[in-house]
């Protein structure tokens, strides 16, 4: 017999994990609503060139991690599973002419992303993000608002001690000079560079600052800093972002080597980490400004900023810090019957109560009443509805399993009785 398993780098979210993920998704949607971000969906796959152009060819995400879909015929387009949401959202912004909407357009996407990464703790091939984008506002106030919204997510999710690492990575006016200084620096250390990084020095020197190769850490620490090379406009923008963050009380730390792994960023760049867990694969989320991306994907120039928060890593952080999430509540009532074979009566009553919006379970195994009642207690149900001979008179027994009391209730009043009990006990 074959033994099938979930693909490497993916995992089944069993009901407990799934309900914890749902809670985070619900929180993301609630925050998006509070901050005025409209929810939308983009396809889980796009033309590969949307990602290649948007994210940049010389990035880990495109070079090594893009999940390309094998075309069925020679003519087929090259597709890829989305490794992130920003490129797809901006593609949609251009396609649907959203530059004619009131600006900025604030959008939110919650869902799975795919990266063909080497799997390890906190790094999966399918993972979930909450992504938010504000397109059409050059900042700096919206930058601070975005960073604050992400920060608030961790606070409300219950992840302790999250800090914001912040940097500005300049713009096309000042970055070229910086890149030249950076290239000269790394060239003078050529012999110490691993093969991949030596190649990248030719094509995308900024990537070296973000290298996953630990051999590079000391070199990166001594490298020239972009912060010392910002033009006046970028420096003023960065100062204003910081002033706004301070005014609204978001704690942050300027991290001069923070550059982010995707190519579309300009100016503001930020990441969220738990204090003491600031390793390469431990970012809880990250984002930044991308004033050139809309144009790069075929639209007219429009500034933008966004973030993506990794929900899997939030679940891991909550596990590690022992912060527990509320599990699904038990059923309000379990419907049991004196006649083990009469599953029709039990299902009918359950159906009636569910139609009234109540959370109930019908015991459908043909076992004795005593055993049926045991399952009701095992489920931590507050009530058992017992169907017996009284049903011919239109009555059922309502047993309060917590209080140990029992009384006869007309079937037509059962839903109302249970709803009232649910309200006074905060059930269901
Ligand atoms: P990113 O830094 O590539 O940014 O990913 C954001 C977050 O997604 C990471 O901080 C991490 O928590 C989570 N993540 C990334 N890869 C994995 C993985 N393989 N397994 C588990 N979690 C992962 C972006 O995706 C940008 N689109 C953010 C953005 C939006 N910038 C502007 N707008």
Can you give keywords for this protein?
BirA Bifunctional Protein, domain 2; 36% helix; alpha+beta; single chain; 428 residues; elongated; Rossmann fold
Quantity of strands, as a count? 16
Architecture of the largest domain, CATH level 2? 2-Layer Sandwich
CATH topology of the largest domain: BirA Bifunctional Protein, domain 2
Main β sheet profile: 8 strands, mixed
What does this structure look like?
This protein is of the alpha+beta class and 428 residues long. The protein has 2 domains: 15-174 and 230-321, BirA Bifunctional Protein, domain 2, CATH 3.30.930.10; 333-424, Anticodon-binding domain (Rossmann fold), CATH 3.40.50.800. 36% of the residues lie in helices and 20% in strands. It has 14 helices and 16 strands. It has helices spanning 15-34, 48-55, 60-63, 86-95, 141-157, 175-187, 195-203, 217-222, 232-247, 293-296, 311-320, 343-355, 369-378, 411-425, and strands at 38-39, 45-47, 68-69, 79-81, 105-114, 126-135, 162-168, 252-254, 266-274, 285-289, 304-310, 333-337, 360-362, 383-387, 395-400, 405-410. The strands form 3 sheets. Strands 1-5-6-11-10-9-7-8 form an 8-stranded mixed beta sheet, with helices on both faces. A 5-stranded mixed beta sheet has the order 13-12-14-15-16, sandwiched between helices. It has a 3-stranded antiparallel beta sheet with strand order 2-4-3. A hairpin with a 7-residue loop joins strand 14 (383-387) and strand 15.
